[in-house]
Amino acid sequence: MADKNPSLQVWIRKLINELEGDKTTIVHGDFSPKNIMISMNDEVFILDFEVTHVGNPVFDISFLIAHLLCKFFHAPDALQANLLAKTANAFKKEYEVLREISPSFAHHAALIALARVEGKSPVNYLAPNQQHKLQKHTKSLLARDAKLSLLDLFEMSAR
């Protein structure tokens, strides 16, 4: 990723250092909607622990939000895109009840979403124009030397 985006190398290194420097919890590693099941009784079941490891808790929340961000760019209309943004916001709020979230979570999510287009494991459902919009948006966010929020990630005008 850093080789493809030299202007983002400083941010990429900073985010990698944060992940590598704080190994304080068990990280699922593939925490995405496809690995979360909810029963008819609203019981939550997490699946697929094959890449679980000790790491930084910001990874799992950022991975899930990045997944929702990719779906946001794939959404066929503004209503569905808005529902995805609200889902991300609801998840973040509930997570914050249990644990403080790193201020850099949105940067991590933007970088993971970018990696899902430019990296080794790209999503297969984004059309070329959606990939381009996601790349442009995430690169723009990562180029900022300022704190990012969930609202910045799910900016409707970026779609």
Walk me through what this model shows:
The chain has helices spanning 9-21, 58-74, 78-98, 105-118, 128-143, 150-153, and strands at 25-27, 36-38, 44-46, 53-55. The model has no long low-confidence stretch (mean pLDDT 95). It starts with 8 loop residues before the first helix and ends in a 6-residue tail after the last helix. The strands form 2 sheets. It has a two-stranded antiparallel ribbon. A two-stranded antiparallel ribbon has the order 2-3. It is mostly helical and 159 residues long. The chain has one domain: Alpha-Beta Complex (Aminoglycoside 3'-phosphotransferase, Chain: A, domain 2). A hairpin with a 5-residue loop joins strand 2 and strand 3 (44-46).
Question: What order do the helices and strands come in, and which of them pair?
Answer:
Elements: H1 9-21, E1 25-27, E2 36-38, E3 44-46, E4 53-55, H2 58-74, H3 78-98, H4 105-118, H5 128-143, H6 150-153
Antiparallel strand pairs: 1-4, 2-3
GO molecular function: ATP binding; protein kinase activity
Domain Protein kinase: 1-159
Short description:
By secondary structure, the protein is mainly alpha-helical. The protein has a single domain (6-158), classed as Aminoglycoside 3'-phosphotransferase, Chain: A, domain 2, CATH 3.90.1200.10.
Mean pLDDT: 95
Q: What is the percentage of strand-forming residues?
A: 5-15%
Under the CATH scheme, the architecture is Alpha-Beta Complex
Ends: how far apart? 22 Å
What structural class do helix, strand and pairing data support? Answer: mainly alpha
| Broad CATH class | Alpha Beta
The largest beta-sheet arranges its strands as: 1-4
How many H/I helices?
Answer: 6
Uncertain regions spanning at least 5 consecutive residues: none
Domains, number: 1
Helicity level: 40-55%
Q: Profile the largest sheet.
A: 2 strands, antiparallel
What is the third-level CATH name, the topology?
A: Aminoglycoside 3'-phosphotransferase, Chain: A, domain 2
How many DSSP-defined strands?
4
> What is the radius of gyration computed over CA atoms, rounded to a whole number of angstroms?
15 Å
User: What best-fitting shape do the alpha-carbon axes yield?
Assistant: globular
List the secondary-structure elements in sequence, H or E: HEEEEHHHHH
